[in-house]
């Protein structure tokens, strides 16, 4: 532990001071802004502590400084040794997201991190410009929140002093939706289980299997079992979690799922560990499959899983949700400053 370190390991719900060690050297949590606005945290549903109930903090911190784990994989994907970018470094974590993302709590956590003498601050959230807190403090800030794709793909950070980072894709987990007319549409998936083994199954669009509002989204209780049973369902992305959509299809007897992006996500693909044979495809592929369903009397499909692919070309590729241009206010300042892998990263996850 660095001699300059002034951090602490704060105890709370499902978290004790002994939870810290020489790798996790500090853990704090900030909630006053939440409680002033919305009232006391319901500790029966959320941990009032640094405990990561969501998984996001564990994933980002282990990507940065996680120790080496030998001969590991996720359902046999990416077999090998897993490690963070800087395995010899330690981390102090600041919890602000379990119960909400209030600017006052975010700023309080930043102030405390500076007092604790952090050397590098990585912030993977949005909603507040933190530059004024960090100028002349001797702390390097790397912030990914300002590169979310906005109007015209321009970055939302315009300070010369704030380092923004774009996400890139390197490896891939391809899974193809192969439809009855012979067309194959490339998608991604981390599904590991009984596969369709090339068997062509009936394909139905969720909007045609329900009488509910938002029936294209495969939300809980919207699918009609008699229309879905034994079929692969095409669900649109949005509102409810991606993996939950597959769980909804599976619960009513569906055999698989093709998850299609809409205009909101475009061609951005995120690989998920689905609960049934499923693949995620971009908007263009999704629209093509929907057109096939609309004109074919008996549409059919199978899903082909290709495992882990490295050395994908072109590579690296900037993720679809990341900005491509400078800031709209001061376009002479180019952003982002850095690009680094940030999508489809297999890293640690909270067991909370």
Number of strands: 18
Residue ranges: pLDDT <50 for 5 or more in a row? 145-166
Tell me the structural class: alpha/beta
CATH architecture of the largest domain: 3-Layer(aba) Sandwich
- The separation of the N and C termini measures 26 Å
Q: Quick one: CATH superfamily of the largest domain?
A: Peptidase S8/S53 domain
Helix content: 10-25%
Radius of gyration: 22 Å
Shape: globular
CATH topology of the largest domain: Rossmann fold
Kindly provide the name of the CATH class of the largest domain.
Answer: Alpha Beta
Taken together, the total number of domains comes to: 2
Task: Provide a count of the helices.
Answer: 7
Biggest sheet statistics: 7 strands, mixed, barrel
Can you describe this structure in just a few lines?
The chain has 352 residues and is α/β, with parallel strands linked by helices. The protein has seven helices and 18 strands. The chain has a seven-stranded mixed β-barrel. Strands 5, 6, 8, 16 and 18 form a five-stranded mixed beta sheet that branches.
